[in-house]
């Protein structure tokens, strides 16, 4: 199976401290003038700030971080200039991979330089958590009580723990979604909780709570009782609309399809329309589904189930939603599907910009799909190693930025 991937013999990874080392040593130009006297001219001093800003906009984020260590002037320009971040070239999303059995420390993959960086996440005690990201910030919700939520910038290590959301302390199922405004840098977080009605196998409570960074408070946005369906553990925000994956409980024999997607308008607020009336069936029988926001378009990445064995995955497909209709983008070629080795019926998947990352929970292989060019490609090998047979891996992607704070 390894032969199906790229040659891993030359891969390398760098600790985060390496990123912060100077990218190069500034040179000195010497000229002979007025006899034998020499005058030293600093190239840095000869370049005005606006020209440096222009130069920095062409750098990948890792090179920009290294440039902050050159001198105080460069550090100030990169960290304080709003011009720099509004005019720089788009940064491709990084993917953070870690083991779900140990600490939250792991490695971040840079798709531009094709390198892995040693990275630690602040405020995260365990790797077992729900994750959502947007515009440089990442939101984490602890899996144990599903009420401990924090927001951080993985690059700058700036972080903040939020007030606990209202509602059930220990819901049966939860999901979290985050959205950052690119102009104001304010952010909102939604948490959807699902809990079975006591002694009732048919009905499930479903509630949506929203946090606004401007007010620093939570509000209850929606509450409903589902019949024969429950909330899932995957959601995303696109164009002000919250999309949540829901699952059939099977008690009403509504097992095909077993998944659906509901919509809730976070901008317009609640209406008299039931959330279940907004539900959209998935395009085919799936073992699992992952919702991704790619440039404000809803994308579904799903494990395609065998016709006679709905719990067995036979492939992975990608669909895009248009006017409540799913349009198939592509299906993973069989050689790449085989490249994961033993594939479970569920997998980790996230994406932003034009990239979709897919990772098996049982291995460190990371596959990247470019939506723009319709290309599949393996990342270079991750330094995370498998220490025992039942060790699991997971991950998420985020946009690397230096200008967004919590």
Automatic annotation (TrEMBL):
Residues 41-88 form the F-box domain. InterPro entries: Beta-prop_At3g26010-like, F-box-like_dom_sf, F-box_dom, FBXO31/39, Gal_Oxase/kelch_b-propeller, Kelch-typ_b-propeller, Kelch_2. The keyword NAD does not apply. Pathway: Protein modification; protein ubiquitination. It comes from Panicum virgatum. The lineage of its organism: Eukaryota, Viridiplantae, Streptophyta, Embryophyta, Tracheophyta. Keywords: Ubl conjugation pathway. The keyword Coiled coil does not apply. This is F-box domain-containing protein.
């Amino acid at each position: 199976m390894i032969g199906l991937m790229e040659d891993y013999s030359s891969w390398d990874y760098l600790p985060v401290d390496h990123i912060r080392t100077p990218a190069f040593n500034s040179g000195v130009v010497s000229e002979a003038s007025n006899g034998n006297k020499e005058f030293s001219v600093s190239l840095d001093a000869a370049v005005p700030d606006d020209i440096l800003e222009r130069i920095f906009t062409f750098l990948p984020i890792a090179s920009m971080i290294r440039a902050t260590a050159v001198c105080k002037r460069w550090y100030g320009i990169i960290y304080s200039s709003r011009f720099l971040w509004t005019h720089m070239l788009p940064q491709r999303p990084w993917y953070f991979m870690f083991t779900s059995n140990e600490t939250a420390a792991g490695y971040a993959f840079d798709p531009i330089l094709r390198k892995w960086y040693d990275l630690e996440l602040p405020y995260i005690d365990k790797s077992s958590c729900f994750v959502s990201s947007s515009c440089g910030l990442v939101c984490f919700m602890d899996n144990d009580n599903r009420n401990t939520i924090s927001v951080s910038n993985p690059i700058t290590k700036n972080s903040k723990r939020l007030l606990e959301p209202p509602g059930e302390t220990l819901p049966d199922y939860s999901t979290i979604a985050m959205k950052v405004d690119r102009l104001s840098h304010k952010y909102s977080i939604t948490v959807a909780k699902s809990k079975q009605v006591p002694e009732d196998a048919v009905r499930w409570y479903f509630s949506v709570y929203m946090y606004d960074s401007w007010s620093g408070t939570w509000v209850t946005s929606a509450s409903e009782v589902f019949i024969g369906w429950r909330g899932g553990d995957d959601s995303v925000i696109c164009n002000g609309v919250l999309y949540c994956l829901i699952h059939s409980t099977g008690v009403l024999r509504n097992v095909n399809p077993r998944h659906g997607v509901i919509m809730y308008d976070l901008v317009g607020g609640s209406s008299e329309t039931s959330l279940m009336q907004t539900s959209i069936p998935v395009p085919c029988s799936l073992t699992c589904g992952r919702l991704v926001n790619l440039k404000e378009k809803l994308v579904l990445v799903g494990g395609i189930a065998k016709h006679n064995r709905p719990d067995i995955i036979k492939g992975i497909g990608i669909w895009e939603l248009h006017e409540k209709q799913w349009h198939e983008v592509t299906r993973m070629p069989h050689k790449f599907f085989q490249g994961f080795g033993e594939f479970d019926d569920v997998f980790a998947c996230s994406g932003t910009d034009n990239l979709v990352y897919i990772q098996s929970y049982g291995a460190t292989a990371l596959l990247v799909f470019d939506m723009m060019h319709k290309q599949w490609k393996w990342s270079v090998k991750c330094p995370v190693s498998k220490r025992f047979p039942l060790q699991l891996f997971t991950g998420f992607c985020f946009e690397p930025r230096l200008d967004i704070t919590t």
